[in-house]
Amino acid sequence: IIPSPDIGFFVEKADFTPLDADVRVEHEDGANIVSAQVWLEPLAPNDVVIYSPSPALAGVMGLNVARNPGTGRWTVTGAASAEVYTEVLQSFELRNNGPRVEYLGSADRTVRFQVTDERDVLALGSRPIRLLPVNDPPVPYDVTFTMLEDGTLEGSLEAYDPDGDMITFYSGCPPKKGTLAVDGTPSLDNAPFYYEPFPDESG
Fold first, then answer.
1. Rounded to 5 degrees, what are φ and ψ at 106?
2. Where is the RapA2 cadherin-like domain positioned along the sequence (predicted)?
């Protein structure tokens, strides 16, 4: 089995992309291949690997393709030529659904291939892949405050960032009936603010 020698790059939340569109299975003796396995290490909860064969390949009789839901490992069984198994392995695709591609502290993965021939001889191959993150915007929480006329208000603005990045809060539209000060110190989820209305303002 001969995977692509270069690293594969996958963009977070992009369409499904082949794990290795150029991986090849060869057998010098022309013997049939009877099984194969494909898996990703490590497999993050937001990594989705699917089998997407062409109509011609889907019509090949005797091949069974199944996924182990516990491990995420795909297994192919059934006697077929190395050329057919080449098409099979090229038909596995990956998508990362976000919001974070890092898993166990890294955006790197390894796709592993294993094939076994009719003489029970096993071959292994692997290809490194890297997931490229897309920056998701922070999400603010709506909030309503009530205060007395000629009083002051101290509160907290809250939001979260799907990627876990620090957030900087600021006033995008200054109030017309008072003075607002927002703490612009980067934070994970909140920023204190202070509001003082002009005299005799209400409503």
1. -145, 150
2. 130-185
- How far from 36 is each of 125, 146, 148, 155, CA to CA, in Å? 11, 65, 72, 60
| The total number of structural domains that make up the chain | 2
Residue in the block written with tokens 């692509």: 4
DSSP 32-96: PEEEEEEEEES--TTEEEEE---HHHHT-TT-EEEE-TTT--EEEEEEE-HHHHHHHHTTEEEEE
Q: Which amino acid is at 77?
A: T
Q: Please answer whether residues 15 and 90 qualify as being in contact, where contact means their C-beta atoms are separated by less than 8 angstroms.
A: no
User: Residue 132's pLDDT band (boundaries 50, 70, 90)?
Assistant: very high
Token pair recorded at residue 171: 């006033």
Please tell me whether residues 193 and 151 are part of one structural domain: yes
Q: Are 117 and 32 in contact (CB under 8 A)?
A: yes
Single pTM value for the model: 0.77
pLDDT value for 57 = 85
2 falls within a domain: no
